[in-house]
Amino acid sequence: MHPSNVPAEIPVTGKGLGAGPDPCWSILDGEVSLPVAVLRDSALQHNLAWMRDFIAAYGVELAPHGKTTMSPELFAMQLDAGAWGITLATAPQVRDAYRHGVRRVLMANQLVGRANMALIAELLRDPAFAFCCLVDSATNADALGAYFAERSQRLRLLLEIGVTGGRTGVRDDAQARAVLDAIARWPQSLALVGVETYEGVLKDEAGIRALLRRTVAIMQMLRDEGAFAEPRILLSGAGSAWYDVVAEEFADAAKNPDVQVLLRPGCYLTHDAGAYRDADARIHASNPVARSMAEGLRPALQLWACVQSVPEPGRAIVGLGKRDAAFDAGLPLPVLQHRPGDAAPQPAPSHWRLDAIMDQHAFLAIDADDDVQVGDMLCFDICHPCLTFDKWRHLLRVDDDWRVTGIVTTCF
Amino acid sequence: MHPSNVPAEIPVTGKGLGAGPDPCWSILDGEVSLPVAVLRDSALQHNLAWMRDFIAAYGVELAPHGKTTMSPELFAMQLDAGAWGITLATAPQVRDAYRHGVRRVLMANQLVGRANMALIAELLRDPAFAFCCLVDSATNADALGAYFAERSQRLRLLLEIGVTGGRTGVRDDAQARAVLDAIARWPQSLALVGVETYEGVLKDEAGIRALLRRTVAIMQMLRDEGAFAEPRILLSGAGSAWYDVVAEEFADAAKNPDVQVLLRPGCYLTHDAGAYRDADARIHASNPVARSMAEGLRPALQLWACVQSVPEPGRAIVGLGKRDAAFDAGLPLPVLQHRPGDAAPQPAPSHWRLDAIMDQHAFLAIDADDDVQVGDMLCFDICHPCLTFDKWRHLLRVDDDWRVTGIVTTCF
């Protein structure tokens, strides 16, 4: 039987693919060109269910950040699992998601530049396409107002709330007022529909809770003023590290039927063995809903690569590099070793670690008497899914025996 | 007139493209979605001619490392400018280059893993395809020997010479002998055709010259022993930082008609404003051929991005991130500012600098009274071309007025 979710046409170029015409490739049998990026089906399904249950417990909705994967097949899985829509970061990302069937998008960024406005204006011609984006300056609001007025279109906006020293977002009430005044100058072409923040620029929980409460307070104040153009107000926050705290802080607002809370974690789907594993441990220790669940998220995205050289005692060179894996938040972590011909992979010794990475090579520190041979296959957990995904045009879905069950594509 | 080198079909998805159906887009007029990666035609032509002249002065040949760009259109430019062939790093890269017409490849890596061997075996069925790769272990040589013997094919190999503490390559004579013995076990399927080293793992010129001299000495010893399977011996070295020193050290060997010297710099084509600019300064100060040339290499690869927010004094947030630019060897450097509607861009003040970068945003440190507005377009030089290229599926070629003259694709 043909695996599900395999694109009609199997790609014939690019890395990390099998050579044969049938995609039922076995990683362990050496049927796939290494290095390869794989997604474990069981972990994906676990993570989809986990986040669906977590989100439901708080009465909020999930708009997972699609910039992490930019994969239409994974977007479809997230929407099938109940996501409200997809969050995206740029106008080309929105366009590519739309082309693959996504019809509800929160662009968690300002829309800047005429060509980017043109991309969105084209999509807004479809009345079935629901879109909103952020605004944090009167300059931008006026530019958007003029652009969309010329086209007799109306752009839906969330006021972005930020913090001094942070990224985007209004710092104080005066800035917020200036933005609101600008939006009010373009009643035909701009509609304020909600309030947004990104707490991930902060590192301490107290500061994050203060920002989230300020965001809720601003939403309530604007609601009392009648500033919103639609009856249902959007309230959005949450990256992949603090979504539990955002859920806690926004849960009260979500009880109001006029408020729709959208959380935007993107990395939950694949998780990792770096910063998000650390976040998961914190969440499981502190969040009552997470504590009630049997386990946390599982790392679903892994890399297989070959040992290419064992040139001196204590060092193996692996065919895996910055071209294949994120390296900005920790290097990939060896978890399995498989010698072609053996029945099954073995756990990698805990003292193995990558101590350097170049464009196409990684340096594995081992003990001088460890049994590592040229041709051995190594499986790695990764740190930072986003910057791993964008190194691959195709990733292979695999079952628990490392047999390929499908191919997913990316649109970076 | 239609620009040259535009693919027959203009891509309709992906980032950094224009919205209109005609690719004669103007960056300055806002016709291209930002961020975009651009290649300046004048700088590309300058760099192609510069390296052609430099290489010719030493009587050696150029096998530019294609892993930098993985762009078929740029490979074609390099071959048109006289390159011997293309160097590549992995079997899928070789396959993709072959599909785009490259017929002479040095794979500057070990060929490991059955699926990768299968990719190369398939290409070797074409007698017009000239291929060689590196070997540094008996284990790998025996695996290759057996694999290609089964297929009645012969694989051409270069013995890789390395250094202790370095990357791949034999460390000493005993290792080299073991590899040569293994190659000799497979006379039907393996052919030793040369010697190779990569000096870029070392940082000091004295150590580099010692490695290069050792490599030449090993080649001479093996030639005297009759170890090579072909009358013309390949001798190869050089990354993008020390190719001048390799040219100097290999020039004598190149005078022998039985020796073909292949240098492999890849980054010269686009250059950068980081480590390779520094290398260029060293080369121009010390190498007599370079000193005789009017100027060095020019940065050809640049990024344009929009100011997205100016949320507080001294800080602008730019729509450019780790998804768009290398960040491992220095952050992009702002060089131009253009306000839409102005006649021409202005040089960016020298005190501007990026002081942080996230997936989709960069943080520009400015003075509180600098005139920076949301919507301003900024042009950046980059550091590390390889990891910038692999963030883009298309790059735009531009003339000196920032009008698009063509599109080049990448195959990562």
Describe this structure in words.
Two copies of one chain form a homodimer. Chain A is of the alpha/beta class. Chain A folds into two domains: 3-42 and 297-409, D-serine dehydratase-like domain (Lyase, Ornithine Decarboxylase, Chain A, domain 1, Beta Barrel), CATH 2.40.37.20; 44-273, TIM Barrel (Alpha-Beta Barrel), CATH 3.20.20.10. Chain A has eleven helices and 18 strands. In chain A, the strands form two sheets. In chain A, strands 1, 10, 11, 12, 13, 14, 15, 16, 17 and 18 form a ten-stranded mixed β-sheet that branches. Chain A has an eight-stranded parallel β-sheet with strand order 2-9-8-7-6-5-4-3. In chain A, strand 3, helix 3 and strand 4 (104-110) form a beta-alpha-beta unit. In chain A, helix 3 (91-99) packs parallel to helix 4 and helix 5 packs parallel to helix 6 (173-184). Chains A and B meet through helix 3, helix 4, helix 5 and strand 10 of A and helix 3, helix 4, helix 5 and strand 10 of B.
Biggest pleated sheet of chain A: 10 strands, mixed
Gross morphology of chain A is: elongated
What is the structural class of chain A?
Answer: alpha/beta
How many structural domains does the protein architecture of chain A include? 2
- Percent helix among the residues of chain A? 25-40%
Supply Rg of chain A. Answer: 23 Å
Which spans of chain A of ≥5 residues are poorly predicted at pLDDT below 50?
A: none
Mean pLDDT over the residues of chain A: 96
